[in-house]
Predict the structure.
Amino acid sequence: MMMLARRLAALPARRAPLNARQAPPLARAMTHYAPPPRPTATSYKHERVRHSPRKLNLIAKLVRRLWVPDALAQLQFTPKRFAPTVAAAIERCAQRAAAQHELVPEELEIERCFVTPAPFMKRLKIMGRGRSGTIRKRSGHLNVTVAAVDFEAKIRDAHNPRQRRKWEERRAVARAARERVLGEFAFPDEAAATDEEAPSEAPEGLKPAT
């Protein structure tokens, strides 16, 4: 009994399992951990893209966490055959965000962009010496999620003046695009605050005589 007690005491204490938020950064990256979606997040899924998921994921990796106009420009000059497919999915997701949350593309960033495997087709492969094999024609599901950019947080957390100026310019571009698309309904909160601050004029008959 004494020997058993000593062996048990020498064993390392068992630790409680870590959840996703307590895990180290490398573990979160290896398990594809992602924060919960934001309230303005909008998703779009392009199913059964006839391309290898591994190769398609290389294109999706180029635009993750990018501002939507920058992502579309990146895909426009990417020499990949399925770059227009990813760009079309991003545009479709931005249109859905405009319909659901009244957001223009200049106010959005790509929160998630990844590819999951889809069912593949089997075809006959003729080989030498009378043998045959199987060809797997793979496909994948392209998943895109966009969300509104918090420009104030981006400017506040900028690492250098150059990055701060970049986000200030993007905020100005987004504001101009919103005014161009929505007109006088672009910023209802600011309009309401202006109406409250404006002094009310007295009726014509009650104006003081001069």
Notes: The chain has a mean pLDDT of 84.
